[in-house]
Amino acid sequence: MTGRIEANLKDLGITLPHAAAPAANYVPWVISGNLLFVAGQLPMEAGQIAVTGTLGAGVTLEVGQRAARLCAVNIIAQAKAALGDLDRVKRIVRLGGFVASANGFTDQSKVVNGASDLMVAVFGDAGRHARAAVGVNVLPLGAAVEIDAIIEFA
Question: DSSP of the chain, one letter per residue?
Answer without folding.
Answer: ---HHHHHHHHTT--PPPPPPPSSSS-SEEEETTEEEEEEE--EETTEE--BSEETBEE-HHHHHHHHHHHHHHHHHHHHHHHS-GGGEEEEEEEEEEEEB-TT---HHHHHHHHHHHHHHHHGGGG--EEEEEEES--GGGBSEEEEEEEEE-
